[in-house]
Amino acid sequence: MEIAGISDFESLAASTNAPVFTPQTDDFGLAVHIFKMLNRGIHPYSSGELDLGIFDLDDDIPPAPSLNNCACNGRSPFVGTLVGHLIPVYALELDDFGHLMSEAFRRSLYGRAEERLDARTWARLLDLYLSETTVECPRRGHLYDASQDECPYCRGERTLLALLADC
C-alpha cells in the first residue's frame, strides 16, 4: 500500500532508522557479487591490506574500518579512497577488467544509485564480456580482457607465490 508516494515499509523504516531496501540496493548487491566472482572472491570494500609502511614502529595501528562503513561511504582500495590500505597483490585492479567492465563496476559500486546497472544489463554485459572481449590464457585457461598484455590472474598468482616463498 502506498500513501502520498511513500510505501508503508518506507514510512516504518524512516520512523525506526531501519535501512530501506530498494531495487538499487539489489543492483548494488549484484555488482558486489559479480566483482567477487571475477576477482577471486575479493570483496570490493573490505579486502584492502593495511600499508604498514606508512606507520612508525611506535605508532598505534588503527583498526580497519568496518565493511558497512566502507560500503556506505564508498571507501575502497580499488578506487583509492580507503586511505592506508592497498589492493592485495593477487587481486585484479579495476582496469584489469578492461574499459567496459571497469566502468560498469565504477558506476555500480562507487557511483550514484541511479547509475547502477540492473540485472538485465549485467547479464548482457557479462555475455558480451565473455564472448567478445576476453581471451583465454594459454597457460591456465583463465578468461581475461583482451586489452591486457598478460593474464592478470597468472600475474597475481606469480606475485603471491613469490611473497610466500620469501616467508
DSSP E strands, number: 6
Rounded mean pLDDT score: 83
- Head-to-tail CA distance between termini: 61 Å
Q: Which regions have little confidence, pLDDT < 50, spanning 5+ residues?
A: none
Main sheet overview: 2 strands, antiparallel
Structural class: mainly alpha
Rg, Cα atoms, Å: 19 Å
Which shape, going by the Cα principal axes? Answer: flat
Helix share, percent: 40-55%
Q: What is the element string, with H for helices and E for strands?
A: EEHHEHEHHEEH
Instruction: Estimate the strand proportion.
Output: 5-15%
Count of separate DSSP helical elements: 6
Number of domains: 1
Q: How would you write the strand order of the largest sheet?
A: 1-2
Overview of the molecule:
- This protein has helices at 8-16, 23-38, 67-73, 98-110, 119-133, 152-166, and strands at residues 2-3, 6-7, 49-50, 85-86, 134-136, 143-145.
- A two-stranded antiparallel sheet has the order 1-2. Strands 3-4 form a two-stranded antiparallel ribbon.
- With 167 residues, it is mainly alpha-helical.
- The protein contains 6 helices and 6 strands, in the order E-E-H-H-E-H-E-H-H-E-E-H.
- The protein has one domain (22-166).
Short description:
The protein has helices at residues 8-16, 23-38, 67-73, 98-110, 119-133, 152-166; strands at residues 2-3, 6-7, 49-50, 85-86, 134-136, 143-145.
Helices and strands in order:
Blueprint: E1 2-3, E2 6-7, H1 8-16, H2 23-38, E3 49-50, H3 67-73, E4 85-86, H4 98-110, H5 119-133, E5 134-136, E6 143-145, H6 152-166
Antiparallel strand pairs: 1-2, 3-4, 5-6
